[in-house]
Amino acid sequence: MNSTLGIAVPPATGAWRDGDPAGRRRWFTLPGPLDLEAGGTLPGGRLAYETWGSLTPDGSNAVLVLHALTGDSHLAGPAGAGHPTAGWWDELVGPGRALDTDRWFVVAPNVLGGCQGSTGPASAAPDGRIWGGRFPFLTQRDQVAAEALLADALGVARWALVVGGSMGGMRALEWAVTHPHRVGALLVLATTAAASAEQIAHASAQLHAIRTDPGWHGGDYHRLPPGAGPHHGLGLARRLAQITYRSESELATRFGRAPQAGEHPWRGGRFAVESYLDHHASKLAHRFDAGSYVVLNEAMNTHDLGRGRGGTAAALRRVSAPALVAAVDSDRLYPPAQQAELAAHLPHADALRVISSPYGHDGFLLETEQVAPLLAELLPGGRR
User: Fold this and answer.
1) For residue 271, which phi and psi values (nearest 5 degrees)?
2) CB 290 within 8 A of CB 154
3) What does residue 326 show for φ and ψ, rounded to 5 degrees?
4) Distance of CA 346 to the CA centre of its chain
5) CB 185 within 8 A of CB 161
6) Which end of the chain is more exposed for a tag (fewer CB within 10 A), N or C?
7) CA separation for the pair 301, 245 (Å, rounded)
8) Mean pLDDT of the residues in the chain
9) What pLDDT, in 10s, does the model give residues 325-336?
10) Do 138 and 111 meet the contact criterion of CB atoms below 8 Å apart?
């Protein structure tokens, strides 16, 4: 604790570590080395995941929910031991809700390369040392390959529905393109067929912020004491990202030009919007790992459904599942034109759906009352 400011000093990493409370997590160990698209292998690893509901004997009621960049397997449930935040789609999961756990077996894995129980840079490598900067380069296809092995282990030959937004939407699309016979229906929100130049540029600035932090040490910082890791760079990356996650109009309405309470910008104080960004930077530094932030952003930058498949349109023609694509009308990070392209090229997609929200990209997380009917349309027995 910083005795002067009364602020907790950030740990070197906010990753979940062995010995921390497990919470609702379960683990799946990869059965062997995982061949990687960029070359080489991940010699071993595991995925943390959480489930809700029960799998039917024929395995037909399973739903796969894939999280965004700084999400994790804690899709639903309260914050508590092992879970620093409440479930990120809590309003949608449970008895009588859109993902009715009296009927559906809902699975949410922490992505490979993540930091909340799955193997990533903060994890121990086979030699017993922390992976750190040695962690291999991953693509979305590698992450889906690991999730397919998890599905096998759970006894799920075919998902009734695969759903994801943002980075989770990228993986949902990869699932449907790579394993069309294993995806019964597809819902993607606020995502794209391929990362754009602007999206890569946004991520590049964030990665540069982390890698130029003196606490980065080439990615080998995990054993450093609190306050000595790359939390400044991770915090700056989060500030940059948070601006793109929200809309200009929401920031203007919520904060305007108001100073933070008790502070004056003329005298070294902050504007309220600066305090907001500082809050999100500090919060992420306490629950996330800078190395995972780098690995996952690099995977997002290389996202391209058409790579090696004859282009985007040809790749999307592989998808055999009924699909819905939803855009957030105020999204400036993944603009609706990208979702319109997906809807136009997915063979069995309905018309593009638009989530009306003042919140920008984060609307796919926050506007659960508008997401729930989309889930109902695609799940068997729902309205179509």
Assistant:
1) -75, 160
2) no
3) -120, 135
4) 23
5) yes
6) N
7) 17
8) 96
9) 999 999 999 999
10) no
